Amino acid sequence: MSLKIKKKFNAFNETLATKAKKIIEEEMPQKIFTLNDFLKTGDLFNVQDLSIFHQPIVPKPDSTFNPNKKRKLDEETESKTESKPVVYTDHTESCHPHLFKCIDFLKNEIEEVVSLCNTVKIYIQLNIPKIEDGNNFGVSIQEEVVKELSSAEDSAFAVLDSISKYYMQRAKLVTKVMKYPHVKDYQLCIWELDEKEYTWLRLTAIDIRNNYAMLYDMIQKNYDRIEKPRQENAHAALY
Questions:
Q1: 193 with 127: CB under 8 angstroms?
Q2: According to the UniProt entry, where is the signal peptide (predicted)?
C-alpha cells in the first residue's frame, strides 16, 4: 500500500470512528428516549378503539366500461369477459390513513436504524486487529457485537418486506370486494387485516426501541474491548 493511499484510508477511518462514536455516545441513547416517549404519549401508536379501521370499501364502476361486454379471442376459442376497472371512494385509494401514517413513520425509522447500525458495524470491523495466535477474546466480543448489529439490520429490512406483503394481501381482498360486493366476509376480512397490521406496526416500533436499547447496552458494557480488543492480562466478561 502506497503512503498516499494509506494516508487517505487512515483519514477515512478517523472520520468513520468519529461518526460511530457520536452515534454510540449520543444518537443511539437519544433514539431510545425519543421512541420511548413517542410510544407512551404519541397518538400514532396509542389507538384504543380499533374500530376506527372499519371504513367500508365502496366500489364504484367506471361507466365507460361494460362489465358484460365480451370479445372474441379467435374463431375457435370461447369468448372471454373483459376486466372491469373500478375506482374507489377517496378513503379507499390506499390503506387506512392512520395505518399509512404509521407505515410512513416506521419506514423513516427503519432507514435510520440501518444507517446507524451500518456505520457502527463497519467501524468495529475496521477496528478488528490482524489475525494472531492467542489473546483473541476481545476480537470475539467485536465479532459478537457486529453479529447483533447485522441482526438488527436484517430485522429492519424484514419489516419493509412485510409492509409490501400487507399491501399485496389487502389489494387482493379489495379486488374480491369489487368483484363480490354482496359478500360481507371480504369486507370483514379487510377490517381484521387492518387491525392486525396496526398491532404489528406498534409492536415493530417497540422492537426498534428495544433493539436500540439492547445494542447500546451491549456496546457500553464492552466498549473497552471494542476499542482495544487485545489487552494484556485482561479477563473481561462478554456481557
A1: no
A2: none
**Closest by alpha carbon to 59, among 179, 236, 234, 204?**
179
Q: Residue 134: pLDDT band by 50, 70, 90 thresholds?
A: low
Alpha helices in the chain (DSSP H): 3-22, 28-41, 97-126, 137-179, 184-221, 223-227
* CA distance linking residue 116 with residue 28, whole number of Å: 8
Q: What is the DSSP letter of 134?
A: S
Q: Which domains does the chain have, with CATH numbers?
A: 16-56+95-227 (1.20.120.180)
Helix (H) or strand (E) run with residue 86 in it: strand 86-88
Are 139 and 97 a contacting pair, CB within 8 Å?
no
**Cross-strand pairs, 27:** none
Per-residue b/e over 39-78, b at no fewer than 16 CB within 10 Å? beeeebbebeeeeebebebebeeeeeeeeeeeeeeeeeee
153, 113 Cβ separation under 8 angstroms: yes
Phi, psi of 215 (to 5 degrees): -65, -45
pTM: 0.80
Tens of pLDDT, residue by residue over 172-192, are 999 998 889 889 999 999 999
